[in-house]
Specification:
The chain has 309 residues and is α/β, with parallel strands linked by helices. The chain has 2 domains: 101 residues, no CATH class; 173 residues, Rossmann fold. The chain has 7 helices and 10 strands. The strands form 3 sheets. Strands 6-5-7-8-10 form a 5-stranded parallel β-sheet. A 3-stranded parallel β-sheet has the order 1-2-4, with no helix packed on it. The longest helix has 18 residues. Belongs to the glycosyltransferase 90 family.
């Protein structure tokens, strides 16, 4: 039977916060800090710092407080999320707008398949939410359609215009889209999924990017437990409450088109740097090798190492 509390929570917008992240994150132990003498760090870490790189620790025996900026902030670290993984940033608004318009034209709501859909790579295949989804797909294909990519592309990091997540437009064929963790307790896939008018089923994760706080459970998406144990129930609930599911998906698209625009991302970057710079306790000195940034430099339009002549 479908839990009736889903309907009540969805209609009221209330939700119960996840009390325990679970999985490998639940037993994560922080490393000893290494940036002594610094007030803050602006550190380009594309996928966070959770593969053995030092994490800042703050406790009674170590009062050091250092603001470490990385891709995500996590329940088990003190990092501040900083937009480090926006590939093709100059094309951001256009690509998201095209994704929305195209999928709206090709796959209107009533034509979509009422199945939870996911396609992705097989990171941590032995103990991963994606593996659970694929297994559930084998058990109940009428509820979940989850498979691995046939081919994993990495050249999207080197060239513009190559999709990061396969043909993301194909996901719009489905009413329910799964957002599952990647290989570092999070996934940037939600940026694209949020521009498709399908109901987002979002796995509860310990790490998040800066904009996640704008997406509220039961208002913009349906939360799914870390182990996906309530996934079948969520799909059945969505089928029985099609109008509510559609309203939730509409709300997500509206907020995503605002908070994930180029302007919003740049505003966040400016706000984060300015606010934390005010915490500095010493006079800032220009490094002798520092060079001014040319806004027209080609180096600002690539994620590869680049040096102006």
């Amino acid at each position: 039977a479908v839990n009736s509390s889903w309907i009540k929570e969805a209609q009221s917008g209330s939700s119960t916060p996840c009390e325990h992240a679970g999985g490998s994150a639940g037993s994560f132990k922080e490393h000893v800090p290494q940036f002594r003498g610094h007030d803050w760090q602006l550190h380009y870490r594309i996928y966070g710092n959770h593969f053995g790189n030092p994490i800042q620790q703050t406790n009674a025996s170590n009062p050091l407080r250092v603001a470490m900026f990385s891709a995500t902030s996590c329940a088990f670290s003190y990092d501040i999320s900083f937009p480090t993984t926006f590939y093709d940033f100059e094309l951001l608004d256009r690509e998201f707008s095209e994704l929305y318009r195209t999928t709206e034209a090709l796959f209107p709501w009533d034509s979509k398949l009422d199945v939870a859909y996911f396609r992705g790579s097989c990171w941590f295949y032995k103990s991963h939410g994606r593996t659970a989804a694929m297994t559930m797909s084998k058990v109940a294909k009428d509820l979940v359609d989850a498979e691995w990519y046939d081919e994993i592309r990495t050249d999207m990091l080197e060239k513009d215009g190559i999709p990061q997540f396969g043909d993301i437009q194909e996901a719009a064929r489905y009413k329910y889209l799964l957002h599952l963790e990647g290989h570092d307790f999070w996934s940037m896939r939600i940026r694209s999924l949020a521009h498709i008018r399908s109901l987002l089923l979002k796995q509860q994760l310990p790490c998040e990017e800066f904009y996640y706080g704008f997406f509220q459970p039961y208002l913009h998406y349906l939360p799914i437990k870390r182990d996906l144990s309530d996934l079948f129930e969520a799909v059945l609930w969505a089928r029985q409450n099609d109008d509510i599911a559609r309203n939730i998906s509409d709300a997500l698209v509206r907020v995503a088109r605002s908070v994930l625009s180029k302007r919003s991302v740049l505003q966040y970057v400016h706000m984060a740097i300015v606010r934390y710079s005010k915490l500095l306790r010493y006079k800032v000195k220009l490094h002798p090798k520092a060079r001014p940034i040319d806004p027209s430099s080609r180096c600002l339009k690539t994620v590869l190492p680049c040096f102006d002549e």
